[in-house]
Amino acid sequence: MSEFTRGLRLWFAPERVREEGDTPDYRFSLANERTFLAWIRTALALIGGGFAVDQFLPGLAWGIRAGLALGLLAAGVLCALRAVNHWVRCERAMRRGEDLPVSRFPALLSLVVAVVALAMVVVVLFGWEGR
Amino acid sequence: MTTGERDPGLQPERTRLAWRRTTLACTVVAVLAVRQALRSGPAGAGMLAVALSLLAWLGFLVVAHRRVTGMGTSRPAPLSPRHALTSAACTVALAVFAVATLF
Prior knowledge:
The complex is a heterodimer of chains A (about 130) and B (about 100). With about 130 residues, chain A is an all-alpha fold. Chain A is built from 4 helices and no strands. The relative contact order of chain A is 0.15.
């Protein structure tokens, strides 16, 4: 938990990342940046999916539609926040010459996406129409 | 465009294209936000949410542009934490305004 708060402090005083260790090879920094951007794209895709559920599935009952959209949007927010956190932790680990951090997040995200997809299959198969 | 010898693995090039792809994804979300507002008609709160969404999109564009222009050298500096935080904040803002227009 203290590791987490220290990471959180780095978010708001980010210049502190630069203070420790040595600057790694620029190629490693750029690879970390591309990983960060890939996670941001994943977040944007989830958010776009949330909009799409709301706009392109007008036949669904309002509760189901809003629930699916909210789930996708919440996953998008989590994904964006975790992108920054993971980027900061990787950057710090590279500067200190430590192992890169491991994470449970990809498994968690894939479970959420699988649950939403299954919900959609059920909704489409059984025609859960509104009103 | 590049000064000095080029990177044999084209790392700056790949990173620049990654920024472009991400900007494109952000634009798609912004377009969906505008569509949402057009669909629900000109209501005060919805319009405000869309204006703020477009502001977040612009913020993302500015960060991406700065980063892409900074990638012109053969050994670019690492991404600044402020830019990383800003681009993530813009993404979160788009989601928050999406939730606001949902109801």
